[in-house]
UniProtKB/TrEMBL annotation:
It is found in: Cell outer membrane. It comes from the Bacteria. GO terms for cellular component: cell outer membrane; efflux pump complex. Coiled coil: none annotated. It comes from Photobacterium damselae subsp. damselae (Listonella damsela). The keyword Membrane applies. This is TolC family protein. Keywords: Cell outer membrane, Membrane, Signal, Transmembrane, Transmembrane beta strand, Transport. Belongs to the outer membrane factor (OMF) (TC 1.B.17) family. GO terms for molecular function: efflux transmembrane transporter activity; porin activity.
Length: 241
């Protein structure tokens, strides 16, 4: 967790533009910590494992049993002999027992502690994996947005070329085959636009599955404050740092 968190924070807070209407990476990560099904399951498993330690340890502790009772015979006034006492009584008991050595209880405690350590490590791994999944889902959305913007710009350019080709054909400067070729290119770009729109929708949906919330707009990468320049250190050193 400590290996990836500094790098994640530097991107989340320093590498993104600040738009009041857009969700940034830090906000989305906080949402994911509260709602991600995988992380929530890992947390629940960890809590259950540590609770099992308490349960296993309780079998090694002294056992106290407290009992109380009341006994009484009531007689009506006609059958009650003068001067005879009523038969009433209270009784209480306290029993303390302690097993000198119960091997199975100690084995169960050892197993519970091992499972708790494993679940704790699994939870830490789930936290680290969440950083990676949130980052990937976030930047997948940004990439899908860029791809859609590019293909729409391409559609506009190809559309202008198609109109120009139709005009040239109308005045006899181009063959009909040129118009057909331009139309085919335009249709191809339209198909690409549909694919990119679907890809963007799917990217948003994958992000929603992690955060539990719908997102409509994300902060873009601020290339002025964050760049892909060589940091001067090997990647392994950055991860270890």
């Amino acid at each position: 967790m400590k290996k990836l968190l500094p790098l994640f924070i530097s991107v989340a807070f320093g590498g993104l533009s600040q738009s009041a209407l857009a969700d940034n990476l830090a906000e989305i990560y906080q949402q994911a910590k509260q709602n991600d099904p995988q992380l929530l399951k890992a947390a629940a498993d960890k809590d259950a494992a540590f609770e099992a330690i308490n349960s296993a340890r309780s079998s090694l502790l002294p056992q106290i049993n407290l009992s109380a009772g009341y006994k009484g015979n009531f007689m009506d006034a006609d059958s009650h002999a003068p001067g005879a006492p009523d038969n009433h009584g209270f009784n209480t008991g306290l029993q303390l027992s302690q097993s000198i050595y119960n091997r199975s209880s100690w084995v169960n405690l050892d197993i519970s502690e091992q499972q708790a350590r494993q679940s704790d490590a699994a939870y830490a791994a789930a936290q680290q994996a969440l950083i990676m999944r949130v980052s990937k889902a976030y930047f997948d959305v940004l990439k899908a947005q860029d791809d859609l913007t590019f293909v729409r710009a391409e559609k506009a350019a190809v559309g202008r070329q198609l109109e120009q080709m139709k005009q040239r054909f109308d005045v006899g400067l181009s063959a009909i085959t040129d118009v057909y070729d331009a139309q085919a290119q335009y249709d191809s770009v339209l198909a690409s636009e549909i694919l990119k729109e679907n890809a963007l929708t799917n990217s948003y949906e994958e992000l929603r599955e992690i955060t539990g919330q719908a997102h409509k707009n994300l902060d873009i990468l601020d290339t002025k404050s964050f760049s892909a320049s060589n940091p001067g250190k090997p990647v392994n050193d950055l991860v270890k740092g």
